[in-house]
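Anyone? Bumping this.
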Amino acid sequence: MAGKKADIWQPVIERPEAAGRVILVCEHASNHIPDQWDDLGLTADQRQAHIAWDPGALGVARGLAERLDATLIHAPVSRLVYDLNRAPDMAGAMPARSEVHDIPGNAAITATERLARTEAIYLPWTNGLHNLIANRIALGRRPVVITIHSFTPIYHGRQRLVEFGVIHDADAHLSVAILDAAHRKTRLQAELNSPYSAADDVTHTLRVHATPYGLPNAMLEIRNDLIATPEAQAKMAETLAPVLNMGIEEIQKQAKAS
Amino acid sequence: MAGKKADIWQPVIERPEAAGRVILVCEHASNHIPDQWDDLGLTADQRQAHIAWDPGALGVARGLAERLDATLIHAPVSRLVYDLNRAPDMAGAMPARSEVHDIPGNAAITATERLARTEAIYLPWTNGLHNLIANRIALGRRPVVITIHSFTPIYHGRQRLVEFGVIHDADAHLSVAILDAAHRKTRLQAELNSPYSAADDVTHTLRVHATPYGLPNAMLEIRNDLIATPEAQAKMAETLAPVLNMGIEEIQKQAKAS
């Protein structure tokens, strides 16, 4: 599993030998801040809030991994130490402010510290995910890459009505098929590129790992009040598993027809 | 430097601490076929031919690295064992045939062997290059990525008149600026996307390592009869170094103006 090893935080990989086609990715699974960063100067409440992680996302991702027989890779540390869905020079990678909260431990970050976190967290993650994907490709098993996120129902004081967002990078095929399946199979308020889109630079993982290899991919966003308990997470996984299967079947049908 | 270590062939990285902005990449620098692949069943002549490597490219790349104060990363083994400018499931990654030559050692390659070569050669390469790039980005020194290739003057019996090709991936800015500088500063027969283009799936390195990070990038192709000796390679580096500098200056000017 995860853990510190010579100051390197490796990604956590579950079900590495899974037979299904999907690789699930959860960049914001954890709110763990390793000791050396002294809680980044945050209160206990702040460290539980959505700024530190995507609450509920890991539970849903695990439920989906089981139901889809998928491999799951997830983050070992909080997005406030390093946000794995951001390049090392993006402001959001080690943010000095997130929503309405200042992050004291990131306020005056030096280039040396930026490099140290990149080497300790971002590089092991990107190498680990890349190896997983490239190995599947080598075996002739081109994976489908789906990232699992949650979002806060209230952002900057404004309520968000969308419940399930599907965000695409350069290739929209899978996202559109998943959205269509969600409309047909669920009562979720489901929308494309909501509550934000690739234009907001939120598809870094897909852009680095899926798009260059031409792999089908999508980013899922679930409103976190719907997945606040383990039971709610399991129920959401039960709802979304057939939606993802239907979306994947649809693009496979399209690929055969073309 | 390069070398075998527990059956892993690491990329060779020269001048890792160079202060310049460019990272030079030479995926086809070597015609070395490690013992375990028994020369892939090829004759000595075939192992010297362009199908095994890009003759002269490493010499030019080293000359450019010195003149641009650039870091250089190059391949430790022949492209016929693993072509580092190809994804693991592309036919050209471990080709059964190259131009007019059958490659016996690649004729009946199994999925297991494909995975073994991917793990031994492709993954160390992609991880090494990615780490180099991400570390520069973390330090606020966004690199320019330029790959250096050579091509054969006669392909499938047909003579190629182009001497210097500049090939772009999604972002053409740097390639266009380099081509313009070549026309102004040299007498080389220089062309865009020649003798082939991204549509022929030859920009894998740029697509995986430069495009997702929005880094300026270009692929250079030099006709190999012009760089057949160390002297000719040094002369070509002397010709091209100011061309690359002029191209980079031009896109920096454009970036400031926009």
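Late reply, but here is one note on the structure posted above: The interface with chain B takes residues 87-89, 111, 114-115, 117-119, 122-123, 126-127, 130-131, 134-135, 137-140, 142, 204, 207-208, 211-213 of chain A (CB under 8 Å).
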